[in-house]
Amino acid sequence: MRAAVLWEIGLPLSVEEVELDPPQDGEIEVAIACSGVCGSDIHQLVGEYALPLPCVLGHEGAGVVERVGPGVTGLAPGDPVVLLWRSPCGRCEFCQAGRPALCSEAAELRQRGVLVGGRSRLRARGKTVHHFLGVSCWAEYAVVPASAAVRIPPGVPPEHAALVGCAVVTGVGAAWNAASLRPGQSVAVFGCGGVGLNVVQGAAAAAAHPVVAVDVQPSKESLARTFGATHFVDGNRPDLVAEVCRLTGGGAEVAFEAVGLPALAEQAVAATRRGGRTVLVGVAPGGTTARFDPQALVQQERAIIGCLYGSCRPAEEIPRLLRMAAAGRLRLQELVSRRYPLAAIGEAVEAMRSGALARVVVDPRA
Ligand SMILES: [Zn+2]
Ligand SMILES: [Zn+2]
Q1: Are strands 122-124 and 55-56 parallel, antiparallel or unpaired?
Q2: Angle CA 308–286–181, to nearest 5
């Protein structure tokens, strides 16, 4: 099959023939119909995540089950599925508590770029190629654990299904699950990429008000307003924090950081009011630190919380998000800024790195 391989940091992605092993116990092979280009792919591409190389990138994807390995129940060839980059084991303390994003069983495998059993299913040029976040969907096919796929109804546009698997569930989930937003709460969203725009639409759907969107790209204003932002603040403004505080009448009740930049997290915290909460959604590169005033956190009862993968329960929430989108209650089509064939993956990545777009998607079959 063809796949986009990152051989070394700094080299362009190489679209080439990659061997893919058949699915083993508990695994499925999925014919990829659409993949998104997410910030986490770019973090890995530029060396900020330092996960094993070479690897096939891509972790936001959807497709159709091609074949199933031994012992797989509940999925069959022909089933349309959304792929998950955090596959729950279903058995551990966190899975049992309804917090599958915290499941640690597959985390160690993801760190090593392998699947169950400690081996990769990918090879190219006679060498082992690693999996990225257990998905590796910038490819015509992917082999994943069956637990990393959620079956969806037939007829969902593949672009919508792919984006729900990361950007939508992460952003909307941050607003609904991590922040539990209530009508009328004031919100500020720092960063309006694919995830941030979904925080904005999650906040708007929860009737938060005002919903202040912040981004350094002026082109994001109309996008943010499309997704329900009531105000937009240019992230380059030196008085950014003061302006967000002014628009929210003294600071946001809930602020979200949706990029993964420590400096932006500091600004988000500073833009909350007394008793306010900051939800960190973007995944910052390892080893970075942010500074907060601990006295202010105590005396003003401010909170900072992390939200991974929308703190979601994917099997329940992904079909629900798709139902809401089909009913016009969530915007998915507006997230798709551009489409590329797999052969043009380099252009797709550069387009996303410009920071001016919501999401670009890749069709591995084009
Ligand atoms: Zn992602
Ligand atoms: Zn688990």
Answers
A1: unpaired
A2: 25
Considering the candidates 34, 59, 103, 160, report the single residue annotated as catalytic. Answer: 59
Residue 355: per-residue pLDDT: 83
Nearest to 361 by CA among 143, 199, 149, 138: 138
Q: How far is the CA of 215 from the centre of ligand 1 (A)?
A: 19
Side-chain-facing half-sphere of 294: CA atoms under 13 Å: 0
pLDDT number for residue 233: 98
- Its pTM stands at 0.94
* pLDDT score for 209: 98
Is 103 labeled as catalytic in the residue annotation?
no
**Is residue 55 helix, strand or coil?**
strand
Catalytic residue among 38, 95, 103, 312: 38
Nearest to 205 by CA among 329, 319, 327: 329
Q: What is the pLDDT at residue 189?
A: 98
Burial of 10 (0-12, 13-18, 19+ CB in 10 A): exposed
Q: Select which of 55, 166, 245, 312 is catalytic.
A: 166
**Catalytic status, residue 180:** no
Tell how far the Cα of 133 is from the centroid of ligand 1, in angstroms.
Answer: 10
Is 43 labeled as catalytic in the residue annotation? Answer: yes
Residues 199, 171: contact at Cβ < 8 Å?
Answer: yes
In which residue ranges of the chain is pLDDT below 70?
none
Kindly report, residue by residue over 176-217, the tens digit of the pLDDT.
999 999 999 999 999 999 999 999 999 999 999 999 999 999
Has 59 been annotated as catalytic? yes
What is the pLDDT at residue 339? 96
Q: Is 40 an active-site residue? A: yes
Active-site residue among 34, 35, 40, 130?
40
Question: According to the model, what pLDDT value does residue 338 have?
Answer: 93
Residues with CB under 5 A from ligand 2 (ion): 89, 92, 95, 103
Domains of the chain: 2-166+311-363 (3.90.180.10), 180-306 (3.40.50.720)
**Can you give the pLDDT at residue 257?**
98
